C-alpha cells in the first residue's frame, strides 16, 4: 500500500471530514486498513474504526496487531464489543482472545453469545500448537443421501456463517467424515445427483491434537484450501483454512531461522519486542557459545609454546577457524532446510554423510591447493604452506561431517534440528579446527 | 504417507496383480502417488502411471519431480503425451515445459492443441520470476450487467476448463477488471440480482511483470485464494492460484536461508543436485570468506610481537571472535527476516540502529562482567580481565551495528539483504574484533 493513503487519511482527520473519510475507508481492503492503523497515531484508531461499515470493521479487526486490538477493546462499550465479536469467525475470535490479558478475555467472553462462547472455549482448550487450536467450526457439512438440489439449498441456508464454501464436507449419521465435494463439482452436477455418488471418497483429514506445522505441510502437499479436522472418535469437528496454514508455515520458518542464528524464537514482531526482551532472547546462547570459546582458548593455551616459538602459526588461526565454521554452517543449513521441507528424511542418514563427505573432498582440495600456493608464494615457506593445506583438508571434512550429522542426530532425539545450526556447529568446529591444525603443525615442526 | 503403501504396491507389482493395483491407486491422492513414485524404482513408474485413471494420471503428473516427468514423456507415445497434456492446467503445463530439455519441449508442443500451445508460449515468454510466468489463463470471467442466474449458467458452461471457481472476476467491454465475486456471494444472492450490484468493487490485482515474490506476499496479506493478473493495458489476462503462491514463498525462503549460509541458491532439491554442483554452489563464497580470513590474519601478524611477548593474549582470540561473530549473526538474521516479512522497512533505518545498539549495551555489559570475573578468578590477572571485558563491550556493539546496517544498506542498493548474512558479517566482524582487541591490549600493556 502506498504511504500516500495514510497521508490522505491523516489530512482528512485533521480537517474533520468524517463523511469523506468514511467513503475513502469503504473503498479500502481490510488488510490495507489494518496496515494503515499501524502507521497512524494510536489516538486516531478508535475514531477511524467507528467510521468503518460493520462487516469491514470486523474483518479489519481480525487482521490488526494485538496491541491495537487491545486498545480498541478497552475503548469499546459492551454493545460495540459484542457487535464486533459476533461478526468474527470463531477461529479469528479465539486467536485474538488467546493474546489478550485475563481481564480483557473475561469482558469479551461475557459479551459474546453463549454458542460462540462455548466454541471459543473448546478451541482454547486444545494445546497451543495443535490443529484444534487453529481450526474454525464454521464449515458446511452435507449428508451422503442428499441430492445436489437439497445440498445447494442447505448451503444457501448455512452459508452466511461459513468462513469458506469452497469445499463442503460430507458426514454420516455419526458425524464421521465420509467424503468431500468442491463447489465446482456441485455446480457441474445435475440437480438430482446424489451427493454420495459425486463426492470425492478419499478422506484425508488431520486430528485435533496433530501438530499445526504438520497440518500446514499436509495442506501444502495436497494443495488443499481447507483441511478437515476430526476428533479422537473420528467425528468432524472443524476445518483449517489455507490462510491460517500459510501463517503457521511462515511462523515456523521464522522460528527455524531465529534458532539457526542462536536466538530464542518469539512470536512478536521485531519492533513490538522490547530491548530487554531482545537481549534475553539472545544472551543465553551467547553465554553458552562463549563457554565453548573458552574451551577453544584452553586448547590454544596448550599450544602456547608452539606459537611462542613460531609466531606466524597464530596468524593462520582465523583463516582456518572461519573456513571450518563456514563449511559447517553450509552443511548444517542444507540439511536443516532439507529436513524441514521433507526432502531429507532420517533414513537418508548415511546417504547424507556420503554426499557431504564427497562435497568436502572436492571443496577441500580446491581450497587447500589455492591457499597452499598463496602462502608458498607470499611467505616463501613451503613447510607452513603444507601444514595449512593439510589442515584445510582435515578441517573442511570434519566440519561438513559435524555440520550434517548433528542436525540429524538432534531430529533423531526429537529435538529441533535448527538448534544445531551455524553458531553451535561453528563453535564445535572451532575447537576441532584448532586441534587438527596444531596436531599437524606439531608433527611438521616437531613441537 | 506411510511407507507401507509403497511396500504393498511393490509386492502387487512383483505378483503382477494389475487389476488390484489399479484399485489401490484409484483410492490414493495424487500427491501421495507422486511421492510414492519417488520411492519406487524408475522401471516401475511407466507401468504404474498407465494403470491410473485419466484425470488422476494428469493430476499426478503435474505433481511429480522433473526427472520422473521426463522419464515418462520419453516413454509416451504421441497420443499418450497429448492425452496427459490436454488434461493439465496451462500453468502446470508451462511449469513442466520450462524444466524440460529442448527436444522434449518440441515434442510436447507438437502434441498439444493449438489453443493451449499459444497460451503456453505466452506464459513462457514472461520473465522467469514474473507474475505472468506463474499465472494460469483458466479462470472464469463475468460481465457487470449479467444477472446471478446468467452468471451461474455461464459458470456451469465454462467451469470444466477453470482451475478454480472460488472467485469469479468481472470485466468490462475492454476486458478491464472491474470487480470480483466469490461463489459464496453468488449463492447468497437472488437469481435476478445484477452482478455489478453484488460484486466487490475494490479491485486489487498484480501486473504480468510484477516479481512473483511480491505476488505471493500480496496474496498472503489479503488472504486471497486467487490473485488476478492484468497486462500493461490493464486487461485481465490470468490468475495466480494460492498453491503456486505458497510454493513461491517456500522457494524464496529456501533461497534466503541458503544465501544466509553463504550458499549459492539452486532450485533443485538436495539429493537431485550432484556433488560437483553442490561444491560449485558453496566454493565461491568459501574462497571470498577465506580471503578475508587472510586479512584478519594480516592484522594478527601486525601484532605478532604482542602475543610473542604475552602469549596468553592469543588464547582469547577465539572467544572474542566467536562472540563478535555470533552477535553480528543474531542482528543480521533478525533484520533480514524482518525485512522479508515486511515488518522492517528501509525508513526504519535509524530506529533499527537505536534498537540494536540498545540491545548491544545490555548484552555486552552482561558478557563483559561475566567473562571479566571468570578470567580474574581463573587467571588471577586483573589487567587481562579488564582488557577482555572492555574488548567485549566494543566488539559486541560494533558487531551488532554492522549486523543490522549491512543488510539494510544492501536492500537500499537493491541487492538481496540475505547476501549480507552471517558468514560475510562474521568475517568482517572478525577483523574488527581483532583490531579492537589488540588496540585495547596495546594501550594496557604498552605494546
List keywords for this structure.
23 helices, mainly alpha, 3-stranded mixed sheet, 447 residues, homodimer
Q: Any overview of this molecule?
A:
- The structure is a homodimer of 447-residue chains.
- With 447 residues, chain A is mainly alpha-helical.
- Helices cover 68% and strands 6% of the residues of chain A.
- Chain A contains 23 helices and six strands.
- The first copy, chain A, has helices at 3-14, 18-27, 30-39, 44-51, 54-63, 66-75, 78-87, 90-99, 102-110, 114-125, 131-134, 148-158, 183-188, 195-198, 212-222, 242-260, 275-302, 304-309, 312-315, 317-340, 349-379, 382-412, 422-445; strands spanning 141-142, 167-171, 177-182, 206-207, 226-230, 236-241.
- In chain A, the strands form two sheets. In chain A, strands 1-2-3 form a three-stranded mixed beta sheet.
- The mean pLDDT of chain A is 86.
- Chains A and B meet through helix 12, helix 13, helix 15, helix 16 and helix 17 of A and helix 12, helix 13, helix 15, helix 16 and helix 17 of B.
Concise account of the structure shown:
Chain A is built from 23 helices and 6 strands.
Q: How can the largest sheet of chain A be summarized?
A: 3 strands, mixed
Distance between the termini of chain A: 67 Å
Write down the overall geometry of chain A.
elongated
Total beta strand runs of chain A: 6
* Number of contiguous helices of chain A: 23
Could you tell me the mean pLDDT of chain A?
Answer: 86
User: Rg of chain A from C-alpha positions?
Assistant: 30 Å
The SSE order of chain A reads HHHHHHHHHHHEHEEHHEHEEHHHHHHHH
